[in-house]
Amino acid sequence: MITANRDSSTSRFRAMGSDISITVWGTGYQEMVALAAARLEILEQAWSRFRPDSELSRANARAGFGAFEVSRDLAELVQRMLDSAELTHGLFNPTMARIMESLGYNVDFPQVAASSIDSLPSVPTVNGITLNGNQLMLSPGVALDPGAIGKGLAGDIVCREFMAAGAVGVVADIGGDVVVFGTPGDDSWRIAVVDESSPQSCLATVCNESGSFAVATSSVMRKRWAGVHHVIDPRTGTVSETDLVQATVVADSGWKAEALATAAMVLGYQDGEKFLNDMNIEHVLVSNQLVGSAA
Q1: Helix-helix angle 254-267:269-278, to 10 degrees
Q2: Range(s) of the domain holding residue 58
Q3: In which band, very low, low, confident or very high, does the pLDDT at 120 lie, cut at 50, 70 and 90?
Q4: CA gap 10, 3 in Å, rounded
């Protein structure tokens, strides 16, 4: 669906298993904003772990068979996955696709079924990923899973490309994770941080007059099945068990906000607070004790 007013144009659609909203400020963007859905489809076809014919799935199938050329979009995703692993000291690990599959999370979330967690595969290290330009090589046993940073990076790319085309400002809301560039016309950015345990409640509001930044949330309250959730601790190779139920992070890019939010979830409330404070990262953390007291 496309809507427009004098200053902005908005496209709303489904992609990447999420509700998407892209709004572009500037004149003459009503037709161009419709291209956002096509751009997200191209990225999903390159990055999706749930499409057997995606470029990522084909890359995972070639692990152990030497280097091969990948598209610019997939090369950028792999580089950001490596950057995320370094940024979080390994708390984000992009090599856990086989673990997620073993847990039953090998299809879009609404179709996930229960699976055994008794014999999960081991977690490969990022040392099994080699990227030189557009040449990618995966060691035997390595299978890539971008996790939420795929959504964050998609927001970065869409915003970046609209700004390069001359937009005044862009906001990409991908399943509730938000990336903004520029300015919203004569207004300023105000991004609400929603309480995942009570979606009508606002925990905080991120305000900024202009610039590029992202607000991303990792939570164990939405994606749960058969008593497990999608946040995996790469240090143990199994489902993370901490007192955190939600971590919202503000960073200068979508992929970075997603990676840091995931790291905080793995660390838990106290260690996550210290980790993010040491990096001078704006954040909101919610522990299960706080949720219980609020109830």
Answers
A1: 140
A2: 53-138
A3: low
A4: 5
